[in-house]
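Regression test case RT-17, inverse folding.

Input:
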């Protein structure tokens, strides 16, 4: 009798252990996210910027698919480094997403003396949402109508024209620094804690100009509040066919000028592969819908469809590229 009891006990323990292993996988493959706990989508910039706009669009649809809520948490500062560090230290359980960008996950590691995370080792890529150029804009009352006007005016002004950005190390900042480096013209960089407040000052004329993504600047250009001077892509945009590229300006040294921003979603390193795969699959489906494709293209973004391995390779190349640009141009965090 005692032996049978011991066998039954061992069998029960074995079954319980097997169930404990299988249940998380079952939950991950079901229609509801494990436990139904809310997901935090960290946006390392203030509300109103590109990363915030995309996070809210995707988060709402993702919450519906996973049967839970997705809460947007804006934590701006240091070109996306502050919020990204918070994300890097979050539990790797699938309940924290990080809206990564060219600045937070490629540029900042070479720009700042020290950041509290490694853009590659501290995260696992989930989705590359898309890429988009930035556009140089001035307010509607500005006398500048061409890039040559901007460069000539900046040469004539002590310290150069003032140019806002979403923060030191962002694509907006790097576009300005690359323009200064290649043209030999000086500007005064004014970093903000996100695109939202920066572009409002560009609209109000508190700053002379600004590079910003087409996602943020596009609606203000369409409304007439801002004038588009040039885009940083290699070719003109279908959404802004009348706006020339920087390379088309005819200015010496700018023939190969190109800056392309990007938006991605990451999770903390160590997040279980089944969770990453589920997130990748669901977000990919969301982005593939005609509605989202139209929105992305309307923003001037080029949608992408890369595997997580391809995203990791793309990010690695971006980290190396911007490290070279920052070193060659002597760019330093302010």
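Golden output:
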């Amino acid at each position: 009798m005692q032996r049978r009891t011991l066998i039954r006990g061992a069998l029960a323990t074995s079954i319980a252990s097997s169930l404990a292993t299988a249940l998380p996988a079952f939950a991950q493959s079901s229609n509801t996210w494990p436990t139904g706990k809310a997901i935090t989508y960290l946006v390392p910039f203030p509300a109103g910027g590109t990363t915030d706009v995309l996070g809210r669009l995707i988060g709402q649809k993702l919450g519906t698919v996973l049967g839970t809520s997705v809460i947007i948490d804006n934590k701006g500062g240091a070109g996306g480094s502050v919020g990204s560090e918070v994300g890097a230290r979050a539990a790797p359980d699938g309940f924290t997403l990080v809206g990564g960008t060219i600045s937070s996950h490629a540029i900042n590691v070479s720009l700042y003396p020290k950041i509290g995370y490694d853009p590659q080792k501290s995260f696992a890529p989930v989705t590359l949402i898309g890429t988009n150029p930035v556009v140089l804009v001035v307010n509607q009352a500005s006398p500048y109508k061409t890039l040559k006007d901007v460069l000539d005016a900046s040469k004539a002004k002590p310290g150069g024209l003032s140019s806002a950005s979403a923060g030191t190390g962002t694509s907006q900042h790097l576009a300005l620094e690359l323009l200064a480096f290649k043209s030999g013209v000086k500007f005064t960089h004014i970093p903000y804690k996100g695109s939202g407040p920066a572009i409002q000052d560009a609209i109000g004329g508190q700053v002379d100009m600004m590079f910003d993504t087409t996602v943020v600047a596009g609606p203000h250009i369409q409304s007439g509040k801002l004038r588009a001077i040039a885009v940083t892509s290699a070719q003109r945009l279908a959404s802004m066919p009348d706006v020339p590229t920087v390379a088309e300006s005819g200015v010496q040294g700018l023939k190969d000028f190109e800056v392309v921003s990007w938006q991605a979603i990451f999770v903390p390193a160590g997040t279980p592969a089944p969770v990453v795969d589920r997130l990748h699959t669901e977000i990919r489906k969301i982005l593939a819908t005609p509605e989202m494709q139209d929105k992305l293209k309307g923003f001037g973004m080029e949608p992408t469809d890369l595997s997580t391995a391809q995203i990791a390779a793309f990010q690695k190349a971006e980290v190396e590229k911007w490290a070279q640009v920052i070193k060659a141009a002597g760019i330093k965090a302010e």
